[in-house]
Automatic annotation (TrEMBL), chain A:
GO terms for cellular component: ATP-binding cassette (ABC) transporter complex. PANTHER family: AMINO-ACID ABC TRANSPORTER PERMEASE PROTEIN YHDX-RELATED, MEMBRANE COMPONENT OF AMINO ACID ABC TRANSPORTER. It comes from the Bacteria. GO terms for biological process: amino acid transport. It comes from Bradyrhizobium zhengyangense. It is found in: Cell inner membrane; Cell membrane. It holds the Pfam family BPD_transp_1. It is a multi-pass membrane protein. The chain crosses the membrane at residues 24-44, 90-119, 140-158, 188-206, 226-248, 268-287, 369-393. Residues 95-388 form the ABC transmembrane type-1 domain. This is ABC transporter permease subunit. The lineage of its organism: Bacteria, Pseudomonadati, Pseudomonadota, Alphaproteobacteria, Hyphomicrobiales. GO terms for molecular function: transmembrane transporter activity.
From TrEMBL, chain B:
Its main location: membrane. Belongs to the binding-protein-dependent transport system permease family. HisMQ subfamily. The lineage of its organism: Bacteria, Pseudomonadati, Pseudomonadota, Alphaproteobacteria, Hyphomicrobiales. It comes from Bradyrhizobium zhengyangense. This is Amino acid ABC transporter permease. PROSITE patterns: ABC_TM1.
Length: 401, 506
């Protein structure tokens, strides 16, 4: 005669309790109720105060103002824009300008950052010290300070257009910005771009084919001659057939200013230089930490297998370092995008400057405008962090396997 | 025998000395191994030397050799008057130094600023040196007492009441707001379709508000009596001291735990009384200096220190909230942290400047500096929470479990076992976020506050000092100030990190 097994205790109530109140149980539920009531009260206070304040200032809440005419000019636009366009178009102009300065800044920041990181890792004492000095000096000064330094001290000290500093006779630096040759599209542009795209796609396909051949059958295929032919040869042939894809219109000094060419406004130059040098210092540290995080034995194992130093770096060290580098690097890219809002200090027409600055002071729609501005940055951050968590999940899956 | 002698070879003389190995120590060895050991490295060394030559030499020439050291206006710093190439224009800094340090703080009152910073330094330095004792008293003084004293020193003004009046005022506002909300709902019920239901809800809320008014009636009555007596804050202070002491005594376990908590509490109140008396807060205090007159390094330090002091409790609360198992609190904490971390500080400052006044009652104006302080604290709090979360995760689970096994409550486990260990782990990260906070204070110049950078920018507009080298001089001077603060903090963070990792070194 066996003892009858006891029935398990009823789990439903426990589970409910856990779901509603966490480990704290019904106390947790009570805490939540109080907390919710406080939040509701704060929200009520905010809404009712905002409503009375807006009424007393005669401002109509809502997004209707976006259809009104903005009637101010913006000195750099990527899409056609004039003063008679709507506030919504101002918003788009601002977002595009923010994106432009972020993308250009990210590019230069990455390049400078990797160079400085290599300097810091260099066995050469002097070079590594110079790299260290750069990082320390840049990281210990405020970004706004640096942007203002470039804008108010360096760029303002450049000569007037008539005495421009000429670089190769094509680029001119003066206190009104940088004058660069402007590209003019020719009939050969379309086939040229098409062939270039074809070349890129074919090279990628070739690379994946070669990798598969290497991993599956152990056959090493040298693909670089084909890639070179695809990427350089194909466009070259199209150029010979259809003529030059673009010609450049060179700037020329006429009177007090330049005719022809395109002008990059000094605000853009100052902001890009400031953002990219500043972020580069952080990127340099991330890259250095990433490369140092790969164990010394990996390098030694690579050379004991007979791989050359370059091949060891390329095939063994860098892939492992990238795993450490990529997440904080993305964070720095995000920081750079957020920091581009400092444009408002020097008047570069980014989102904050034209929308949260000029449009806000013209319309007084503080709540809507600041919410939209914050929303753009928030969306960028959330999308990036979502992508990064997918990346992190894939990395941990590939490691866990 | 001879065979062997003949067939074997015995060396008769010494082998000639080999040349000494290449020297790898000392200066020559260092130059050989670290600078000139391969053709690429020789090239890199030459490039590095060129870079240093073209950056360091002109900088020193500008800052020291060619600099102008005395003068009264721009004429002293113009190349044609000096008769030589002109570098830094230091008289400009001399002329603007008060503006860069104090803004427009009245000259007769500047001793207050100096005193505040001296006080802050005296309290902060022993806090930073790990070997010194009495950390908790020291931290309490710096994080709680110092901000209050600094406020009355820098801003001036006195107090009319004390704890009872403040609590009564706050509770009355709260009760009024609830009653107001209830009446609004009742008003809504007249036009809405769900009239009776709304009316019932509204009446219930009004009832809660009225009940609350009754509950706090003794407090408000006490306040009114004390205001009418015309004795200043002293009666209020005494009553607050008695109430707080009694509550502590009863809640702390009465006579069982000994007299120590009671003595601490009374000593604290005695200290507060001494400060009130010393600064004359009961008699109106020091003359009020409006924050619009504040500027320069003063504003930079005020924002940085307020941000540091205010962000820590916000960060602790959010980090604990994010780890909590209670759903609503966790969701709120995550949303809050991710929101503030996702937006740039400048939009937060715009939010604080333009949106916050709309959210407050119309008769309630907030000072421009306070708005920036609120924005900075909310923003930094979110970053601090993420730092602390790392520290909390680093505390082994067993610590909390052991505390529960001993029968400690959640509050005691957290405040006595988990948090102290977590805080120790994250000191370097916290100091690093203080560095970025200090750098970020420069952003307030965009919302029309004159911090160090804003004052510098304003001083460039002075036509008395417009010379080609003014801007470079100003940036050099401010840059050195920022660098000293940030570099000092980063070295300190490295020092703490080194100390914390002492057990991992071999």
């Amino acid at each position: 005669m066996g003892v009858e097994a006891r029935k398990p205790p009823p789990q439903l109530a426990l589970k409910l309790r856990r779901a509603l109140g966490g480990k704290a149980g019904w106390n947790g539920v009570a805490v939540q109720l109080v907390f919710g009531a406080v939040l509701a009260w704060i929200a009520y206070e905010i809404i009712s105060n905002a409503r009375t304040n807006l009424e007393s200032q005669h401002i109509a809440a809502g997004f209707g103002f976006l259809r009104n005419s903005a009637s101010f000019d913006v000195n750099q636009t990527l899409i056609p824009y004039s003063g008679s366009d709507t506030y919504f178009r101002v918003f788009i102009v601002g977002v595009l300008n923010t994106l432009l300065v972020s993308v250009v800044g990210i590019f230069f920041a990455t390049v400078i950052g990797f160079i400085v990181a290599l300097c810091r890792l260099s066995p050469n004492w002097l070079v590594s010290r110079v790299g260290g000095l750069y990082v320390e000096a840049i990281r210990n000064l405020p970004l706004l300070f640096q942007i203002l330094f470039w804008y108010l001290a360096v760029l303002a000290a450049l000569p007037a257009p008539r005495q421009s500093v000429s670089v190769l006779g094509a680029f001119f630096l003066n206190n009104r910005g940088v004058i660069v040759p402007s590209p003019l599209a020719q009939p050969g542009l379309v086939p040229f771009l098409a062939m270039l795209a074809l070349g890129v796609v074919a090279s990628l396909a070739l690379r994946s084919y070669a990798r598969r051949a290497l991993f599956d059958q152990g056959r090493a295929i040298q693909i670089w001659p084909y890639v070179l032919a695809l990427l350089v040869g194909l466009p070259l042939v199209t150029t010979l057939v259809f003529g030059l894809p673009v010609t450049f219109e060179f700037p020329q000094l006429k009177g007090f200013n330049f005719a022809g060419g395109a002008r990059i406004i000094p605000e853009f130059v100052a902001l890009t230089v400031g953002l990219s040098t500043y972020t580069a210092a952080f990127i340099a540290e991330i890259v250095r930490a990433g490369i140092l995080s790969v164990h010394k034995g990996q390098m030694e194992a690579g050379s004991s297998l007979g791989l050359s130093r370059g091949a060891t770096l390329r095939l063994i060290v860098v892939p492992q370092a990238m795993r450490v580098i990529v997440p904080p690097l993305t964070n720095q890219y995000l920081n750079l995008t957020k920091n581009s809002s400092l444009a408002v200090a020097i008047g570069y027409p980014d989102l904050v400057s034209v929308f949260a600055g000029t449009a806000l002071s013209q319309t007084g729609q503080a709540i809507e405008i600041i919410a939209m501005t914050m929303g753009v940055y928030l969306l960028t951050s959330l999308v990036t962090s979502a992508v990064m968590s997918v990346y992190g999940w894939r990395i941990s899956r590939s490691l866990g396997a | 025998m001879t065979d062997i002698a003949a067939s074997s070879f015995v060396r008769q003389d010494l082998v000639s000395e080999r040349a000494a190995p290449v020297k790898t120590t000392g200066f020559v060895g260092f130059v050989r191994t670290r600078l000139l050991n391969s053709p690429t490295n020789i090239l890199l060394t030459i490039l590095g030397l060129l870079l240093v030559w073209y950056i360091v030499v002109p900088s020193i020439k500008f800052l020291l050799v060619d600099a102008v050291w005395s003068g009264n206006d721009r004429t002293a710093c113009l190349a044609e008057n000096a008769g030589r190439p002109v570098g830094a224009c230091w008289p400009f800094i001399q002329a603007k130094s008060t503006q860069l340090f104090y803004g427009f703080y009245p000259e007769a009152e500047r001793w207050r600023v100096n005193l505040t910073f001296a006080l802050g330094a005296v309290l902060l330095l022993p806090l930073l040196i790990p070997r010194l004792p009495a950390k908790s008293v020291n931290a309490g003084l710096f994080f709680l007492a110092f901000p209050a004293v600094a406020f009355f020193l820098l801003h001036g003004g006195g107090i009319a009441g004390f704890g009872v009046s403040w609590v009564a005022g706050l509770l009355q506002l709260f009760a009024d707001s609830i009653s107001g909300a209830g009446e609004a709902v009742v008003g809504l019920s007249k036009t809405s379709a769900a009239g009776p239901a709304l009316w019932a809800i509204g009446s219930a809320i009004v009832l809660v508000g009225t009940l609350l008014h009754w509950v706090i009636f003794p407090l408000t009555w006490l306040r009114d009596q004390m205001l009418a007596s015309g004795q200043g804050p002293w009666p209020d202070f005494l009553i607050t001291a008695v109430i707080v002491s009694v509550i502590l005594f009863v809640l702390g376990g009465g006579a069982r735990v000994g007299s120590r908590p009671l003595i601490t509490c009374l000593a604290t109140f005695a200290g507060i009384a001494a400060v009130i008396k010393l600064m004359g807060l009961d008699r109106g205090g020091l003359p009020i200096v409006d924050t619009r007159l504040w500027g320069g390094l003063l504003v930079t330090l005020v924002i940085a220190i307020t941000g540091i002091v205010a962000s820590l409790p916000i960060g602790v609360a959010l980090a604990l909230g994010r780890r909590s198992t209670i759903p609503l609190i966790r969701i709120f904490s995550i949303t809050y942290i991710e929101f503030w971390r996702g937006v740039p500080l400048i939009t937060v400052l715009f939010f604080a400047t333009y949106m916050l006044p709309l959210f407050l009652p119309g008769n309630f104006t907030v000072d421009g500096l306070v708005r920036a302080l609120i924005g900075v604290s909310l923003f930094t709090g979110a970053y601090q929470a993420e730092n602390l979360r790392g520290g909390l995760a680093a505390v082994p689970r067993g610590q909390g479990e052991a505390a529960s096994a001993l029968g400690l409550s959640w509050w005691k486990t957290t405040s006595l076992i988990v948090l102290p260990q977590a805080l120790r782990h994250v000191i370097p990260a916290i100091v690093n976020s203080f560095i970025s906070l200090f750098k970020d204070t420069s952003l307030v110049s965009i919302v029309a506050l004159f911090d160090l950078l804003g004052s510098l920018r304003a001083s460039f507009a002075d036509p008395v000092w417009t010379t080609p080298s003014t801007a470079f001089t100003g940036f050099a001077f401010t840059g050195i100030i920022y660098f000293i603060f940030c570099f000092g903090m980063s070295r300190y963070s490295l020092f703490v990190e080194h100390r914390l990792n002492a057990h991992r070194r071999n």
